[in-house]
Amino acid sequence: MKINYTVKLLLPAITASLGTIGKDIDVEIKRDKQGNPFFSGKHIKGILRERVLQFKNALNEEASSFIKKYFGEEGNYLENNDFSKIIFSNLTLKKDKGEKTGNRHGIRIDRRTRTTIPQSLFNYEFLRENNEFEGELVFKDDINKEDLKFILASLFHLNFIGGFKSRGLGKIEVLIDGKDINDLEKIINNLKKDDKKINKDKINNDLIKYSYTLTFDEPLILKARELGNYVEVKKYLQGSTIRGALIELFVKNGIELDKILKIKASDAIKDKVSLASLFKTKYQINGEDKKIDKAQTTIIEVDGVKLERYSKQDFSIVGNEVSVKINPKTKSVESGLLFNSEYLSSYEKDEDKNFKKIELMGDVELPKDLINKNQVYTIYLGKLKTKGFGKAKITFKDYIETKEDIVLRIDKFNEDIPKDEKEELNNKTLITFDLQSDMVLAFNDIYNAQEQFKILANLSDKFEFNYSRSFVNTAKLEGYNIINNIRKIDELVFSRGSVFTFEVENYKEELELLKKIEEKGLGLRKNEGFGRVKICSSRGNN
């Protein structure tokens, strides 16, 4: 159940309180990639949680279990969770309202001498009064009516937002569908439950393959690793993340967990996977970058210009979400509990330099008739899903195989090898194994990448590894199992985009093995999208 609300600024407000080094303004308004100001869902969740707690304590009602139920608790994420947590969106500027900003100066006063502290002059940017922001709260459909009424009453009683509230900034008015707290009963009675769209009565053991298209409504945090209190993100979306989000969607809609654990999902990609063998000239030649695939040629420069690695990422990092833990008694920051996380943009620029939502594609295997084709479903991806991050729309359609025949791909790849380099290869055929997703290894250590790959792929000694045409990246896969709420052991992977190149005399004798590798994949956790391999995938602009 979704509730849309509007926040109107009655006094100026700022959306952030972080200094910006090297700027004319010391404290800037928090903006998204498009330059629009916003209040983060994390901030809204924090101030609403505080107001709910204040009212519960004032009424001498038990607050702890209520707060845990609707604002979060530790525990088994899927099996014991009834999904009662409220999901908060970011507050974004209303599209029909023009942004109005200003800036002010301030100083710091020495409390002892009552005089200005030297070099303490600073200035900050703010949003002027009458700016309007809109956001949404998502509740479980069967939420207790009295609990919902209490939470919405607390929402109406939010009176300040943003930073510098003690300086007279941030006074607001909250409305739901243009109504205030006097119409609370009417608002509750007019709420509509979401259309389910999940055919839970038709679930069966037959898995059907679908293509999916994914678009993003919010920025997202895809954790690569944690460095102390700092979260570093990865710039691509793994199939395991898609699978986990779909499992959560189905469990929320009343499907038993055991019946959907067999579903499979691929990585979500834009166009095609950027291979580690792709290089470009360090400087432009005749006004353009020259791209070379070094699995096909061993040259080190083009027209005297050196080559460097080229990689096209699905996402770009646009900012950092900084948060602190507040001591509820002292209302001050707890020492050592500053958290910082990179986050990824949900927008990119098209050829005309206009912003558009990022769109990714992939494939999934789901029980037959479980979903409706071409129907839009909402899923949540990555970290901080209840705090304004990770909301996405996914649609499914019939899967159509468009992959070119493996023999044609191998022949085309070898045709594009320079003639003199073919002679150096003694006219052997080059076979590249291009990783379309991370490959999870069944080893505790990487001691010899090519030999370990041959073991996993069951390649015979006829396959001779070509060192100069192979480009292998390795990484550790940190993870967290949302099904049973445990931290998983770090796993070793050959990274997505890695290229293993082998020479072979007569590859057609090995066709059945090569086809099986493409069909089944390699390594562990293949049902989560890991270990997908393509033989001699298209290069250049193909």
From TrEMBL:
Superkingdom of the source species: Bacteria
Which organism is this entry from? Fusobacterium nucleatum subsp. polymorphum
**UniProt key word Glycosyltransferase:** no
Any keyword Metal-binding? no
Name assigned to this protein: CRISPR type III-associated protein domain-containing protein
Annotated ranges, domain CRISPR type III-associated protein? 26-173
What processes in GO biological process is this protein linked to?
A: defense response to virus
Query: Which UniProt keywords are listed?
Result: Antiviral defense
